[in-house]
Amino acid sequence: MSEAGLASDAAAGEVLLETVEMQTGYGDLRVVRDASITVRRGEITVLLGRNGAGKTTTLRGITGLNKVTGGSLRYLGEDITGIPAAKRVRRGISYVQEGKRVFHDLTVEQNLLLGGFSTGVGKRALAGSVEEIYELFPILAEKRMLAAASMSGGQQQMLAIGQALMAKPQLLILDEPSQGLAPGIVKEVMQRVHALKQTGIGILLVEQIVQDSVAISDRVAILEMGKTVLSKPASEVTVEAIQEAYFGSTA
Ligand SMILES: Nc1ncnc2c1ncn2[C@@H]1O[C@H](COP(=O)(O)OP(=O)(O)O)[C@@H](O)[C@H]1O
Ligand SMILES: [Mg+2]
Q: Are residues 240 and 174 in the same domain?
């Protein structure tokens, strides 16, 4: 596939990412024992679970920051278990880490440009990419020359997402973008994430906020103590059922 090709050219619904009983952790400590998650192009899969369930660790296995020690990890039909993290980025996996902070002293535009450097494309192409991000997030265009520090938490989260999009991902992974945001802002961030589906990428969204995240998602997976306890199309699960799976074992 052409590196420069737009993700939206490819067939919607194609499986981008599939983990089957994936295991990962830290050194000898196996935190994730069975992560079974599917993400399709043009769709959002939300991975829910309580604090400490292993969501972030799962993402670290997928992105190559932590070693996958069992099960399978497939991306675009290929086993990528042995591929280093930097190569996964180049293959189109972009990751916005939990509590991701942008560079406060740099302007919005400088932050975006930084996100595109790893792609190795020229200045002109980068400028074009920045304009695409501004179309997706008009607030970033408005504040392009201002220091990132001058923006609100929600706006900084959009900047972090914009920065990740500068790498032209096929698969965008977001770890709790709602973290630390007021409820009204959470809804706006979720709407922006939802709109990204139209660019033809697939999104793996990790959240603790159930209702707002499920509302924008196509698939729902729930992780409990390192195991996927539910994985279904969003249309087949009610928020009540999710909350039951989510809180059931704590009762
Ligand atoms: N760097 C680390 N070293 C060892 N254990 C860790 C590390 N980071 C997280 N853990 C452990 O892994 C488990 C899952 O953490 P995490 O994946 O961050 O959960 P979540 O993102 O669902 O809140 C927790 O029990 C946590 O203590
Ligand atoms: Mg986490």
A: yes
